[in-house]
Amino acid sequence: MAKKIGIIVNPVAGMGGKVGLKGSDGEEILAKAIELGAKPECPDKAVVAISQIKQFEDDTLEIYTYPNEMGENEVRACGLEPIVINHMHSSNTKPEDTIRAAKEMYEIGVDLILFAGGDGTARNIMDAVGDRIAVLGIPGGCKIHSAVYAINPKTAGKLVLKFLQGKVKDLRLSEVMDIDEDAFREGVVNARLYGYMKVPYDTKMVQNLKSGRAAGEEAALDLVSRYIAFNMEKDVLYIMGTGSTVRGVMDKLKLKNTLLGVDLVCNNQVITNDVNENTILSYLDKYSKAKIVITVIGGQGYLFGRGNQQISHRVIRKVGLDNILIIATKNKMYSLFGQSLLVDTGDEVLNSELSGYARVIVGYDESVMFKVIS
Amino acid sequence: MSKAYLRKNFHEACWDEPMIYELSTPGTRGILTPEVEDEIVALVGEASDLLPQNVQRKSPLLLPEVDQKHVLAHYIHLTQETMGSNVSNDLSEGTCTMKYNPRLCETLALNENFAYVHPDQDVDTIQGVLEIYYKFEHIMKEISGMDKFSFQPGGGNQAVYCAASVLRAYHNSRKDYKRDTIITTIFSHPCDAAAPATAGYKVITLYPDERGVPDYEALKKAVEETGDHLAGIFMTNPEDIGIYNPNIDKFAELVHSVGGLCYYDQANANAFLGVVRAREAGFDMCHFNIHKTFGTPHGGEGPACGAFGCREFLTKFLPKPTVEFNGEKYYLNYDMPDSFGKVREYFGVAGVILKAYSWAMMHGVEGMKECAAISVLNNNYLEKLLLSIKGCGEAFLGNGIKRQEQCRYSWEELYNDTGVGTNDINKRINDYGIPWYWASHHPWVIPEPMTLEPCETYSKCDLEEYYQALKQAAEEAYTNPEVVLTAPHKSASHDLANPEDLDDPTKWAITWRAFLKKHGDQYTKVK
To answer: Which B residues 419-448 touch A at CB under 8 Å?
Structure first.
């Protein structure tokens, strides 16, 4: 059967970065970026990636894309013939265009959507297709907090090529982060975990993952989640953080989980799902002992302050620093080799107390010591 | 100095050899055993009647049925296709300490007075063999500062497992049952984590600091967190990136301060043989890979021995038997009530011990020190050459620490520039007559890794030959990447068609029966 791929380029992604605007979300900011002399860079990056796909030897490959600068130009620049869907002629691409393009490609039944952009673009793609099909990002935006991007454009192309050739079959759920750009410009990082998309998983190519043949992600997750699930203490309130690794534990316990939210668990029962800071604090008054279970969020390695703000500095203080269980798959920790984990609880004193070294549980009875900075 | 040169017109033997089962013809026999005479059958019955029914097979063994000539030809073909050690330039097997195996040692081991004895023989008939064990143990004690050795472990991993077992026996003897955790480092040999884990210990792994040295501050935190649950530390030094841990004594001191014991993996001992000892570093136990450091063939090319040594207070926990001398004769001591048991049968692979003993006696103290010095010198010379190749870098380059006997290089720059990575370089140098190349132990946290260990037995020319092969492959990556990406071109077999299948257990078959079961439908028999 012919392989089908969808290509979406967000031509304006990344324009705000070089001119110091920390993003390009919103028409006003974009206009300002252009006024400040920003030039589109994302299309060039897309060309680098797409040119790798040219090596795919099967001439039945069908490349679906949107008109002009949303993909058509880039595909043609690589000497490939795209099937252009829709006929918009606007040179003023909006998020709705990205969403519509992704939806249409999903309906056509493409095997994968390759998109170029930043966190905002990833969010749009997620809104359109969720985790229903494989996607991969070409990093082109100002902010790449999401983990759905390849390390660089060339690698994105190579990974898609391997995916089309059937050499990479594993898909893994990777984080889409949502950073509030307006707040970010004011110097406040207000990030939450927006959701997950399925990206082709090659230990060498996604994010910083440099590992060779490591255990499959699923097996690695299974070990970590088993360890936590089987070693939970009686009558202790467990504050189960956000993310797919924590979801792994909840799945092992056969409990309903909020992927992007915080759940409370005690004695293998859900106390309540998707709680905010105040609810957690009120429950903490009712239990003599509590533990926090969190994972390392995003490609940058955040423990607190990104995607799990419900577990605030007040919550952490009340639970106690000795009662934090950090879990992650081995592959995730290998991918952070040479980096440090980050904390940003909003409380400088707590941040410095959390800094130093943390023990991250990476398997059954296995953990690593990792440096933490704020 | 012997000359070595880059073989640009090399080609490996290629026999297109089928699997032995494909050569099978029902009814063919290699050896016809004589029928048992009627008289004997009448007296003792059928041989098969001597075995209880419940241990007898119901169906015959599925063995290939091939005549002698074709069996011989088949295996000679395979050996010609694979190239053994000592045939080509194998300095590249970093962490493996591939060195030349002196013919004298091999000849001694072939002596039938030695080769044909069996460990089940009465000890009175193997006094000479036991004497060699005993004397070699003295050499090992002197080299390490340990008080006693066991040669029972059949390799490095078993030696580490042995250490984990001794560790448990020690803590249990003190009724200190809660010690359930060990610490290791990420660039230690993977068995330093895996063997204690197999023995039931929890494992904490330390990542290195920014200079590539195991992070002492991380150790402090790990020790603080584990407290009286800490059983010990298992670590390699120098680690597989060739960096000697300058804080090694501080590591041992800290672990001891909370009641843990220290185990020194000395599989990378070539850098310090006769120079530094485990005892002075503060360690309680250690092992040497006899099959590497002491000149005997390594890995698939020969049997192994992980010599395990410990301090006096741990000797009673050693595996049994130990080889002893009572002033008159050598004997095997099984009277060890505190021993943890065994990691395998008998008391160590005799051929390996004999070869290693001969090697040690040939070198003497000064000779061993010279081996260490030359291996470090060779490595630093090769490092200088390789870092001049465009695209070749090194882990923690510029950290101001001189490398020991090996280096972990990185082809990251080459990969980013050309798309040619370490696996491709590995395959391409096969075309120049070099089948050996070691990327890295797992995990591959150093991108596109390559680990080389030029031991003392390689000449300057050998180092330069290897450098020329890598330089050639790297230059080709920039000028004609296709030739590297599609390599090897001159090997017995080409690249795997679907290398990703190696990650898929549903496709593995390690027996013919499994192969037919999993792939029988796609398999066409050889005509």
So the answer is: 419, 439-440, 442-447
In chain B, residues with a C-beta closer than 8 Å to the C-beta of A223 are none
* A239 to chain B, closest Cα gap in Å: 21
With 0.90 as the threshold, say if the pTM is over it: no
Which of A85, A120, A87, A123 has the alpha carbon at shortest distance from A5?
A85
* CB-closest option in B206, B219, B445 to A334: B445
Which residues fall within 8 angstroms of residue A171, CB to CB, at 6 or more apart?
A134, A198, A199, A200, A201
Packing angle, helices A42-53 and A153-164, rounded to 10: 30
Q: Cα A155 to chain center, whole Å? A: 17
Q: Which two tokens stand for residue A165?
A: 């050739």
DSSP A232: P
Which DSSP helix (H) or strand (E) runs through B185?
Answer: strand B181-185
ipTM: 0.87
Rounded CA-CA distance B335/A254 in Å is 53
- Is the Cβ–Cβ distance between B248 and B228 less than 8 Å? no
Strands (DSSP E) contained in B4-69 are none
Sign of CA dihedral B252, B256, B258, B260: positive
What is residue A71's DSSP assignment?
B
Closest partner residue to B204 among A214, A334, A359, by Cβ?
A359
Q: Are B232 and B258 in contact, with CB atoms under 8 Å apart?
A: no
Nearest in space to A226 (alpha carbons), one of A254, A259, A255, A252: A252
CB hemisphere CA count around B176 (13 angstroms): 20
- Domain B109-361 class? alpha beta
Q: Which residue has the tokens 């797992």?
A: B442
- Which residues, in sequence order, are bridge partners of residue A4? A62
- What are the chain A neighbours of B502 within 8 Å (beta carbons)? 213
Rounded CA-CA distance B255/B478 in Å is 49
Q: ω before B246 within 30° of 0 (cis)?
A: no
pLDDT value of position B190:
94
- Determine contact, residues A13/A120, Cβ cutoff 8 Å: yes
Contact (CB, 8 A) for A82 and A60: no
Task: Tell me if A213 and B205 make a contact (CB, 8 A cut-off).
Answer: no
Residue type, B500: E
Neighbours of A278 (CB within 10 A): 12
- Per domain, the residue ranges of chain B are 109-361
The list of chain B residues with pLDDT below 70 reads 1, 299-302, 500, 503, 523-527
- pLDDT the model gives residue A212: 37
| Neighboring chain B residues of A213 at a CB cutoff of 8 Å | 442, 502-503
What are the structure tokens assigned to A12, written together?
């304006």
Peptide bond into B214 cis (omega under 30): no
Helix and strand element counts for chain A (H, E): 14, 16
- What distances in angstroms separate CA A190 from CA A183, A184, A311, A346, B355, one per listed residue? 7, 7, 14, 11, 67
Measured distance CA(B306)–CA(B98) in Å, rounded: 16
| Among A92, A23, A11, residue whose Cα is nearest residue A47 | A11
Token digits of residue A353: 């107390």
Residue type, B454: P
Q: Does B123 touch chain A (CB under 8 A)?
A: no
d(CA A15, CA A30): 7
pLDDT digits (tens, 9 = 90+) for A25-77: 677 777 777 777 777 778 888 998 999 988 887 778 999 999 988 999 999 99
Please say if the pLDDT value at position A204 is more than 90.
no
A to B CB pairs, distance under 8 Å: 80
Q: Which of A167, A212, A370 sits opposite B500 (nearest CB)?
A: A167
Token pair, residue B142, equals: 């002197």
Question: By C-alpha distance, which of A261, A310, A259 is closest to A284?
Answer: A310
Helix (H), strand (E) at residue B333: strand B330-333
